[in-house]
Amino acid sequence: MRKVVVTGLGMMTSVGRSVRESWEAMLGGQSGVSEVSAFDTTGYDVHVACQVHFFTDARTRAEHRRLESAYVYASMAAREALGDAGVLSRVSRPWAADRCGVCFATLMGELTAFEAALRRDVSRKDRGLPPEVAAVLPIQSISVRLARDHDLRGPQRTSVDACSAGNHAIAAAVDLIQRGSADLVLAGGVDTLTQTEFTHFHNVHALSPDRCRPFDRNRKGLVLGEGAAALILEEESGARRRGARIYAEVAGYGLSADGYHMTAPEPQGAGASRAMRDALRHGGVTADQVDYISAHGTGTSLNDPMETKAIRAVFGARADRIPVSSVKSMIGHCMGAASVIEAVVSCLAIVDGRVPPTANYEEPDPACDLDYVTEGARVLPVRVVMSNAFAFGGNNAIVIFRALS
Amino acid sequence: VSDGRRVVVTGAGAVSPLGWNRHEFAARVLLGTCGISTIGGFDTAPYPCKVGAEVKELPVERILGKRGLRYMNWGTRLLACAAQLALDDAGYGDSEVLCAETGLLVGSELGNFPQTTSYNFDIVNSAPRDLTPMASYDVALNSSVNYVSVKHRLLALARLCSQGTTSSTDALGDALEMIRRGPWPAILAGGVEQLSLDLFLMYLHQGRLAPSETPDRCVPFGRGRVGTILGEGAALLLLEEAERAIRRGCAPLGELLAYREIFVGADDDTTVVSRGATCVQDLLDGARVRPEEVGFVAASACSDPRGDWLEAGILHAVLPGAPVSALKSLIGETAGASGAFLLLAVLASLEKGLVFPTPSHVDVDPDCRVRLVYPPGEACTARRALITSLDVAGHFSCLLVGAWEDGRDRI
Question: Rounded distance, CA B113 to CA A339, Å?
């Protein structure tokens, strides 16, 4: 079977506009939480989110907000990842363009464009989509534009699997390379802060009013975030031939569905643990070999104990000795981008020998009794990382990253 | 291709403008019945296009039972009904074991976007706190997929992919490859699309919709074509590893042999045709099927001036003179579900030995060098057929389908 390796990283979050900035901020436990400025939160009980504030020029930012902010974010992450892999320029690539694909994840695509149009003109209710919004639809438009921008003319997938969409996109990219349909895939995820999602999570009482405290006894819910991330995935021998820097191997992935409830996870973590076991099996990795778990860790009452139980079910007594942390404690839940951001974190943990903390952790919860890296970033040798993603509907996707010797 | 497991279709559910089970769909497709009529789902008075192919009189309660219908939106109803019909057709009965081993892989161009925009209207026009949690039950674009996964306890995977009008062809192709390479033994795959005002306006504003008050303006490969007419529906097919299907006593409806895809979005016309033709040739070579073994082509042509011409060019380059039929003349552009409907039409044609027809009012554009099959269809003894899907954004996918031949050597 063809091995798939990561040769480039891109990331922009509420705490940094690049991989380096975001990573250092995460290691420092920096919070991206701020007052929501994307829309008016009057009438809500919650007023915070982890927004991206880098577009300081007001007009530019307004334009991005109105039309295609998701594409702008995705494009930034994609360019960084392609540049990092040394393949931003077409002439630097040893493959034909049709051997290079795109797999991108999003929960809402360019929904902010529609929201902005509606806020400008409420009477649109009876007239539906305005032409300028139709121009940035359908959902695949982000992947299509990235493919055109960078001459990536191989297979293309847009994954819309909610909060696990990012890991689905990575899994789809791995499949394309392993089955020989592509040699390089730009795999990424993006989402912007939308009032629609904010209202939804607000009204199901899943939003924290202040900060995200995964696995803490007093956790009050998630904080919504926004951002984008991208990986350059390549077939290993090709990457070695061109002398690429290899961050890690994507050893395997596991997918499952709870089949339990439209919004709540199966509380014992049966579906999540099945996906974890499948990922280990697919990757040829034993439970003893996992050094770090990048948790889904949303800070909600339902997710965190479920994830803890699933980890215990898979790793047994060894679960006590595996560091587990959630970067959502700092950058919020970035939806379709979340698990790709966490994939970048997983690769950096392997090459950097440091894992980010779970910020805001203060009081242990008896239902969440693992090692959550609460003291700050931890230095430790990391060879194998499990990156977890779970979504509404019990949609589970796990990816395993492994250091390549 | 040569090392993988064989993948067969063992059940299908179709909720379409031509009826709400695969048998009705097949019978009407083979007769060349057109499902396009005046749109009743929303007010078309302000718009130049008045017609579409809607799913009508769907007996949701009879198929799904009464429970849970209150909050189930139209797109979810379409997909859930197709899933129930497909699992019943495949003989799954109430087997939790079979369902637990089975995944769900669906393609859609807009997914639940209409429910999302509807919720957004409510947010702008109400105090946020006044909206009940159930009001956003289905705002995620993949909510329909989640619903079906939960209802039937399909535990192996649940995925929604969106590549425009090739979405369900790609979902079927991915499912084929996932089963072939393992470990998935079975995946319920296909597509769903609702004929919503959002989809309608997206096509209208992008200049893809034909101004029309009559059904006969959807003329794939035809002279004077100016745009498409939209349709809706859901089609799901149970793809299964052949040995598993045989073990449980199933008679397969057909076999998926090979799948290929490329992105041609940034290319000029000549290059699109050339690269599309190479893609089809690679598909045939990989499956070790000669062009003359392909009995007919089910094309995705939708009456789009450029897209139809490009697709015709691709087919002429690889399969000159092959019989071609265009399903969208009968059920409109079903967008993310269209590839799955093409597969249903192909399976019906292979089973009956009759290529489904394109309506006689389609007068072929001389620039589109295809040999269209007209009513009453065309007898076909070949055991292979090709499905092609071309999206306006530039994704091109193709799927090779075979009649089930038990005992045939592994390809």
Answer: 22
Select from A107, A261, A394 the Cβ nearest to the Cβ of B140. Answer: A107
CB A253 within 8 A of CB A400: yes
**Cβ atoms A374, A214 nearer than 8 A:** no
Could you tell me the CA-to-CA distances from A216 to A293, A331, A376, A387 in Å, in that order?
Answer: 17, 17, 15, 20
Strand pairing class (A156-159; A100-105):
parallel
Nearest CA of chain A to the CA of B366: how many Å?
Answer: 30
Sequence letter at residue A247? Y
> Tokens at residue B214, please?
């009559």
User: Distance (Å) from the C-alpha of residue B147 to the closest C-alpha of chain A?
Assistant: 6
Dist CA B224 CA B304 (whole Å) = 10
Element of type H or E holding A281? helix A270-283
Dihedral over Cα of A336, A72, A140, A127: its sign = positive
Residues contacting B277, CB < 8 A, separation 6+: B313, B314, B317, B318
Reported ipTM: 0.95
Residue B2: predicted pLDDT:
43
Q: Distances in Å between the alpha carbon of B224 and those of B247, B305, B325?
A: 52, 8, 18
* Residue A322 to residue A301: CA distance in whole angstroms: 22
Task: Give bridge partners of residue B294 from the DSSP assignment.
Answer: B384
> Of B114, B113, B134, whose CA–CA distance to B41 is shortest?
B114
The confidence score (pLDDT) of residue A61 equals 61
DSSP SS3 for A213: coil
Q: How far apart are CA A356 and CA B251, in angstroms?
A: 54
All residues of chain A having their beta carbon less than 8 Å from the beta carbon of residue B206 are 134-135
Of all helices (H) and strands (E), which one includes residue B247?
Answer: helix B242-247
- Compute the distance between CA of residue B22 and CA of residue A192 in angstroms, rounded to an integer: 40
Which of A345, A247, A248 has its CA nearest to residue A15?
A345
Alpha carbon distance A404, B201 (integer Å): 50
- What's the sign of the alpha-carbon dihedral A148, A152, A156, A161? negative
Residue B238, pLDDT > 60, answer yes
For B36-61, what is the HEC assignment? CEECCCCCCCCCCECEEECCCCCCHH
Distance, CA of A37 to CA of A374 (rounded, Å) = 30
- Calculate mean pLDDT across residues A38-64: 81
Question: What CA–CA distance (Å, rounded) separates B35 from B16?
Answer: 9
Report the predicted TM-score, pTM, of the whole model to 2 decimal places: 0.96
Alpha helices in A109-184 (DSSP H): 111-120, 131-134, 141-150, 165-178
Residue B144 contacts A where some CB pair is shorter than 8 Å: no
Give B130's DSSP letter.
Answer: G
Nearest residue in chain A measured CA to CA from B142? A161
